[in-house]
Amino acid sequence: MSPEIPSGAKAAGRARAAVGLRASRPAHALFVLPFVAVYALLLLWPLAKGWFISFHDHDLLSNDSFYVGFQNYLELLDDDVFHQVVWNTLRFVLISVPVFVVLSLMLALALNRPGRLAAVLRAIFFCASVFSVTLITLVWQLALMPERGLVAQGSAALGLPQLPWLTSDLLALPTLALVTVWWIIGLPMMLFLSALQQIPSDVYEAAALDNASRWRTLTHVTLPALKRTVALVAVIEVIRQFQVFPQIMLMTNGGPNNTTRPIVQFIYEQAFMQLSLGYATAASQVLLAVMLVGVSVQMWLERREAAQGVRR
Amino acid sequence: MAALKLEQICKRYGAVQVIPDLSLDVAPGEFIVFLGPSGCGKTSLLRMIAGLEEVSGGRIEIGGKDVTHAAPGQRQLAMVFQHYALYPHMTVRENLAFGLRNIALAEEEIDRRIQEAARMLELDALLARKPGQLSGGQRQRVAIGRAVVKEPALFLFDEPLSNLDAALRGRTRLELAQLHRRLGATMIFVTHDQIEAMTLATRIVVMNAGRIEQVAPPSELYRRPATRFVAGFIGTPGMNFVPVRRLADRQGLAAIELPGGQELLTRVPAAVPGSELTLGIRPEHLVTAARGPLPAQVEMVEFLGERSLAHVRLVDGTRAIATVAGASPAAGELVQLDLVMDEAHLFDKQGLAHHAVAQGAAA
In this complex, which of A1, A211, A225 lies closest to B73 when CB atoms are compared? Predict the structure, then answer.
């Protein structure tokens, strides 16, 4: 739908040719050096160091370290608590990511209109993500307090049963997922809003002239145009939610019965409470692998769909 | 029954009045072109006919039915947009079928119409492709096809050729004219390009500042412009305007004094109001000659192949464009200009035109 893209690509081609006119010199590397240095220092080095440590039994207290090969990984395989935290984290991702995608899309659709009310609401929904996690968890702990909290009083007023939101094995994790969604739904909503505003208005006008109902317009014009943004939001949220930690630490501390303990909390506890850094870094590598798998599956699905789109 | 009837249409955006009061009747089968400079309200008018914008006042009838407040889809019309507005995620076939499925037309009928439109517009090979895989001209044909399959009572075109290159624009223009003839449908076409307007229209609606200046077939618009605006807007280069002084009428015709002092009897009947008039004459009717009533100095000569145009300055400083007859004068040379008086118009102070009557009629 955009003749601009090929012309943009042409412009990029010209730019490359223009750069190529002059021979590349070693001095040019200086321009990228600041980025490469910071990237290497803060990302590549810790990554390599993490791999290295994960093959060692590294005691943080005595700072002793000796090579143990795959010992840490084999232990993780047998560790019931680790199995539990991986499962918890997976469940958290599976609950929260679809809610993020669907809810932020619905919010964006509802608030993608001119006018002061929509602008104020957009700001309100976004501003929750600005607050710190301590503030958010404090507010929600008060709201979810049994009997006296806002939620308990609200459901009592409506005649609904009192639920043990944070203390039941079954409810605690979904509740935490909902709190997380409430907290940081602003960003995906903004991504959807910006994607919605990229859709040219004349396509909607064409749909109106084509007698398309609101539902047909949504399913045949709007949603197809948002496919890439849906994938983007899903990938971002998968990465973010696999690393869930502070709000759980503050609200349930992993309980009840370890049903909400996420991988990152396990890593934190192994490293800084048990002081066994090797074991913790091995768990981090597993988290990295799980995240990579998650994102790869997402991207693969998206690419397959795009390829089918072309073939059809 | 008119195919389209606009009654006292008015449009305001806040305090800004874009169209003050506009009425127009379009007969079935006409090809009407709204022509005017940008900002004259022609696109707003088209969008109001389509129902994409509300009218601030007035009535719109399509095929005898009042559609002033009807939804765009209820108006029995199809529109081709300037930027095509194809659905990017649908194939060409789906693009054509979308509007027909929305009104629950039978699939066989949809197929039949798509086949027919595809054959007419040479879209057969493109039906399985998506808009992103088409060239600008192909997209334009798909957009026209999407309008054709709806078999509407009224076609609307919003500057549909402005995004095409010159060669393709010429070809598509021709195809549109053929399409109009073949379908016999009523079409309304918005453009600021007078060549498009002149070649396509059965009648042109010249608009300026939200008002209709003149509604007429192309040849009449060119030969008998109703106002000074139309005279200046139609034709490339536009009409020359020479300020003249009015003299006492003779033989029932207006007599004038040209810059340079030459007196001249026009063929315009004497009923012209006012004493300060403007003589309007097209470049092809203002010719260099050995002896003529209008002296001028040549500033530049343009060779255009089939003719040469002399850009001249009259003695009162007015610039004009004349056609070179005979040897080409040099820049700076003094020449005489002759006027074809049957084609000379007088414009009064309000800008209204007064045309020459044919010589036989005047005698």
Answer: A211
Distance from first CA to last CA of chain B, Å, rounded?
42
Rounded distance, CA B319 to CA B276, Å?
18
CATH number assigned to the domain covering A71-308: 1.10.3720.10
> Number of Cβ pairs closer than 8 Å across A and B?
78
Which chain A residue has the Cα nearest residue B146?
Answer: A210
Closest CA to B152 of B111, B191, B106, B117: B117
Tens digit of pLDDT for each residue in B135-167? Answer: 988 999 999 999 999 999 899 999 998 888 888
Q: What angle do CA A97, A99, A105 make, to 5 degrees?
A: 105
- Tell me which chain A residues have a C-beta less than 8 angstroms from the C-beta of B102: 210-213, 216
Tell me: the pLDDT tens digits for A160-180?
888 888 888 888 999 999 999
Chain B residues with CB inside 8 Å of A200's CB?
Answer: 83, 85
Q: Which token pair is A268? A: 């934190």
CA dist B79 and A210 (Å) reads 9
Strands B77-80 vs B154-158: parallel, antiparallel or unpaired: parallel
In order, the DSSP letters of A208-227 are HHTT--HHHHIIIIIHHHTH
What does the pLDDT read at residue B274?
A: 83
Pairwise CB contact (< 8 Å): B85 & A212: no
Whole-number pLDDT of residue B327: 86
Q: How far is A5 from chain B (nearest CA, A)?
A: 10
Which residues of B, range 41-60, sit inside 8 Å of A by Cβ?
50-52
Homologous superfamily, domain B240-355: Nucleic acid-binding proteins (2.40.50.140)
Mean pLDDT of A123-127: 88
Using the 8-state DSSP alphabet, how is residue B87 labeled? -
* Residue of chain A minimizing CA distance to B96: A210
This model of the complex carries an ipTM of: 0.85
Name residues of chain B where pLDDT drops below 50. Answer: 361-363
Partnered with residue A267 across adjacent β-strands are: none
Which chain B residue is nearest to residue A200, measuring alpha carbons?
A: B85
Residue B132 with chain A: CB contacts under 8 Å? 1-2
HSE-CB at A32 with a 13 A cutoff on CA atoms is 7
Domain with CATH 2.40.50.140 in chain B: 240-355
Question: Distance between CA atoms of B264 and A194, rounded to whole angstroms?
Answer: 68
CATH of B4-232, one of 3.60.10.10, 3.40.50.300, 3.40.50.1820, 3.20.20.80: 3.40.50.300
